[in-house]
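# nightly structure sweep
# worker-07 picked up a monomer target from the shared queue
# config: single-sequence mode, recycle default, output format = structure tokens
# input follows
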Amino acid sequence: MNEQAGKRLRGRLIRGIGGFYTAKTEEGECFTLRCRKKFRHQGLSPLTGDEVLFTPGEGEKHGWIEEIFPRKTTCLRPPVANVSRLVIVLAPVPEADLLLTDRLISRAAAQGMEVILAVNKSDLDPSLGTVIAGEYAAAGIPVFSVSARNNTGLEPLRESMKGALCCFTGQSGAGKSTLLNALLGLQLETGDLSRKIARGKNTTRQTELIEKDGLQVMDTAGFSLLEKEKLLAPEKLKERYPEFMQYEGQCRFRECLHDREPGCAVQAAADAGRISLRRLERYRVLLSETREGWKERYD
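# output follows
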């Protein structure tokens, strides 16, 4: 008989498959659980990363999730909870999508997540890491140039991930699982890049929290698009750009959105090379999308 049966324990969900969840306690014990119907009535689904209170099952029987503690952060794509550090993986192949990267950074900023950029496959293009570092220097976002294939640049990235629950995300084919293998000495399934369409094939079919050598990392499926945000007021988007904040109040117009208004201090900073002009241009693309989403928010 399980001595812990009937007792309520606290743990973190490390994976969920087909309505079954695995919770891991601080002592390292793992338990298979189901979710009670009350959460469905509350419109709440357990997510990998959730901290939960649960009742273990007896013998081969599963236990039950009794309570889901308040989440510090929530990602819906990929669906994970309590991530405090987002590691966005880019690569020269497929071509780095910095508009997608800025969308991810924006969502992370809204939830108070820290962001790290890992430029993988540096053996294919050693200069890409330098270019991307220049794009995000004024925003204070760390950029690490690494090669999972050659095991180069991994230690600085590994050190930057310690002390936080990290989530790896980014474009399919950028080498997230390969990079995790190299960082943690694992054998996660990886796939070959589709040469025909120069995009990756998703090899990660579920979200799993991996813990090893002092690191906590989510392994998630890759993706290349995010849906619009419909509840973000256009004037709030600029607050997600740290490099803009030092120029707040210096524009000619108090309500300046840094969208080519006359006397814009942010535009002047970009023209002078103090912030990235390309990132400012991508901000304006997102601002246009935000305006459209704001108009559609009640549709």
